[in-house]
Every structure is written in structure tokens, then in C-alpha cells.
């Protein structure tokens, strides 16, 4: 398996058309799968489309360029723009629809992930680095891609995307700002008013020229869903920001390392729900941290990758594999970001069985 690479060019609409043409098949797979999953929990396609229309109208006011690019994807992929909106806002749509129906939280679990941030003094070559597994539904494995965004009105950046999504899951930009994320969950997710969605925030972070601007994307407005944003800078700054619809918490590296999974870390005031239904989260972050510290001061890409391949408590491991059930999860990609060399490493699928590909922002 190999990740496709798109070097975007032109105006937003044209970039969207590039995306839609190259990833047309994968976009179709994602759209059909997520509509099927939504409907399996008691909603229907008409309700999903109506919710997507509401979000599309909201996004047009919030970020016209984002919507223009999204429309370009829809045109080239031969899909309704509402379907592409659903793929871009699926986390928020899913939780809003389920919250309205008071569905048990065990049905709300979205995408996992185990992440890390490494200060320069923790690595062998003195580079700030970020890493994560991107975990999600096993059915969409093989539909991610890497894209390079031109400078335009902002900075150039490199990201890993889900097919159909204009916002990246992780990435880095030309000034050395990088991002990885973890889904979180509280009892009030999906119950608030519409605000900037997760994928728009992740894109805006990578478009930031300064670290404070990147952070402001997260903290200026409360989100409708919970998320941990782990942001780093090549000059040696890393911060993990846990967010929920009504609270935020800031976490920092200890002895050069910080790790995170899908629960709110102990010691805060936010009531975490994810681990009640996915009990592997509390040990994944600690286990990854112990592995990284075993080579403190000399950590390199190979050592990080070895930690991302960990199979302790398989299949509910850092390198996640499908278990029995209707909607099994899997690691879709492992990502490592070198913020000094502006290099993104990634696998197409679980890292235990997929080669690590290298993508450089400068090329």
C-alpha cells in the first residue's frame, strides 16, 4: 500500500477539483460508508443531508475559501456538495444527531489515536518532533492521502487528509508549526451551537505564521466537540490543548516528552467519557511515553516508529487492529513530523505492515 500524493496548485476551486479527480474512488468509498454508518444508528440519509446543509450554510459565512475548495472536490468527484460537507464535518454531524436522540455514549465513539510531542533535547538530532497513529474505521483504510498546499495568501504546508476532507488530520507548515490530534469525548459533546469545526481548525492552525496565531485558532471560540490539539514549533515549543464545549486545559512536556491518547488526562476538571467504553486509552499514552523515554536524548524516527508499532493488548493496542463487531477500528496511518527538516513520514495502514513513506515540504 502506498499513500497518494497531491501537490495542489491554483485557486481554491481548482485545488478542490484536483483533489476530487485524483481521489474520486476513495471519496465514493468514504461517502457510502459514513452514510451507512449514520443510518445504522437510527437516523436516515435525509436527516444527514439536512444537517450537512445547515453546516454548509454556516461554513460559507465562516470560511468562503474552505467552501469553495469543498465545492471543487464535489464537482470533480461527481458527488453532491452536501455529501462532501458530511465528510468534512462528520465528527460534529455525528455527535449533534446522536445527542438529539439521546443515544447512549457507547455508540458515539469516533476515531482513536495515540500521539506524542518531543522537544529538541529529547531527540538525537535536536529536532522538535510530533507523532501519532491515526485510528478510525477499518472499512476506510487505504483512503488517506498526503497533500502539499502552496503558499498563496498564507504559508505553504504539508498534511495528511481523509479522502474528501479539505481539512487535514495532521501536518506541518513552512515556519515549523506542526499539529497532531486526538479525539476526546464528554457528555455534552454535540449539544451546543455551531462553531468552527475540527477540520477547519486543523487547517487554520497549519495556515498560521506564528505560534500564538496557531493557538488562537483553538482557544478563541469554544468547540462543539471535544478534541486534543498537540501543537509544536521547530524552535522548541510544544503544547497540548485539551478542549471540550465548555472548558480547556493546557499540558506541557515533562523531561522533553508529552504523550496523549483519547481521554482527558487526570488532574483536570473535565469529566472524560471515552475510556468508559474504550478502556485501552489510559494505558496507550503512558506506554508510548515509556518507550520514548528509553532512548531519551537519542530518539529518532526509527525509535518513534517502533513505539507506534506496539501490539501490547492486541488488537486494542497503539497499533490498532480490527476486533470483532459491526464497526471495527484500525490504525489507518502512522505519522511522524520532523518540524526542523519540514518532513512528514507516514504509513498507509497499520505501521506494523506498511512501509514508512517520506514527504518533504521543500520538494
TrEMBL record:
<dbReference type="InterPro" id="IPR047801">
    <property type="entry name" value="Peptidase_C45"/>
</dbReference>
<feature type="domain" description="Peptidase C45 hydrolase">
    <location>
        <begin position="127"/>
        <end position="343"/>
    </location>
</feature>
<protein>
    <recommendedName>
        <fullName>Peptidase C45 hydrolase domain-containing protein</fullName>
    </recommendedName>
</protein>
<dbReference type="Pfam" id="PF03417">
    <property type="entry name" value="AAT"/>
</dbReference>
<dbReference type="InterPro" id="IPR005079">
    <property type="entry name" value="Peptidase_C45_hydrolase"/>
</dbReference>
<dbReference type="InterPro" id="IPR047794">
    <property type="entry name" value="C45_proenzyme-like"/>
</dbReference>
Amino acid at each position: 500500500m502506498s499513500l497518494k500524493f497531491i501537490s495542489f496548485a491554483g485557486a481554491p476551486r481548482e485545488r478542490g477539483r484536483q483533489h476530487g479527480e485524483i481521489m474520486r474512488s476513495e471519496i465514493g468509498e468514504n461517502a457510502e460508508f459514513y452514510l451507512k454508518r449514520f443510518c445504522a444508528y437510527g437516523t436516515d440519509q435525509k436527516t444527514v443531508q439536512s444537517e450537512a446543509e445547515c453546516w454548509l450554510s454556516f461554513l460559507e459565512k465562516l470560511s468562503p475559501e474552505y467552501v469553495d475548495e469543498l465545492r471543487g472536490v464535489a464537482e470533480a468527484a461527481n458527488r453532491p456538495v452536501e455529501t462532501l460537507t458530511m465528510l468534512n464535518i462528520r465528527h460534529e454531524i455525528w455527535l449533534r444527531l446522536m445527542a438529539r436522540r439521546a443515544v447512549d455514549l457507547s455508540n458515539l465513539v469516533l476515531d482513536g489515536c495515540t500521539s506524542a510531542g518531543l522537544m529538541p533535547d529529547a531527540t538525537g538530532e535536536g529536532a522538535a518532533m510530533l507523532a501519532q497513529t491515526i485510528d478510525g474505521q477499518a472499512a476506510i483504510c487505504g483512503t488517506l492521502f498526503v497533500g502539499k498546499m502552496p503558499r498563496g495568501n498564507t504559508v505553504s504546508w504539508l498534511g495528511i487528509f481523509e479522502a474528501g476532507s479539505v481539512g487535514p488530520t495532521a501536518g506541518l507548515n513552512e515556519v515549523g508549526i506542526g499539529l497532531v490530534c486526538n479525539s476526546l469525548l464528554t457528555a455534552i459533546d454535540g449539544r451546543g451551537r455551531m462553531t468552527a469545526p475540527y477540520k477547519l481548525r486543523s487547517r487554520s492552525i497549519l495556515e498560521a505564521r506564528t505560534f500564538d496565531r496557531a493557538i488562537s485558532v483553538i482557544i478563541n471560540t469554544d468547540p462543539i466537540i471535544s478534541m486534543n490539539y498537540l501543537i509544536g514549533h521547530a524552535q522548541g515549543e510544544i503544547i497540548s490543548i485539551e478542549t471540550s464545549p465548555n472548558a480547556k486545559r493546557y499540558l506541557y512536556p515533562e523531561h522533553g516528552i508529552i504523550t496523549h491518547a483519547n481521554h482527558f488526562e487526570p488532574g483536570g476538571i473535565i469529566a472524560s467519557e471515552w475510556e468508559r467504553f474504550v478502556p485501552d486509552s489510559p494505558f496507550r499514552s503512558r506506554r508510548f511515553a515509556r518507550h520514548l523515554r528509553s532512548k531519551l536524548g537519542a530518539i529518532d524516527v526509527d525509535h518513534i516508529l517502533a513505539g507506534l508499532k506496539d501490539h501490547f493488548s492486541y488488537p486494542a493496542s497503539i497499533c490498532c487492529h480490527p476486533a470483532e463487531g459491526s464497526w471495527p477500528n484500525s490504525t489507518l496511518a502512522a505519522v511522524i513530523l520532523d518540524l526542523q527538516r519540514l518532513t512528514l513520514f507516514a504509513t498507509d495502514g497499520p505501521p506494523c505492515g506498511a512501509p514508512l513513506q517520506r514527504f518533504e515540504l521543500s520538494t
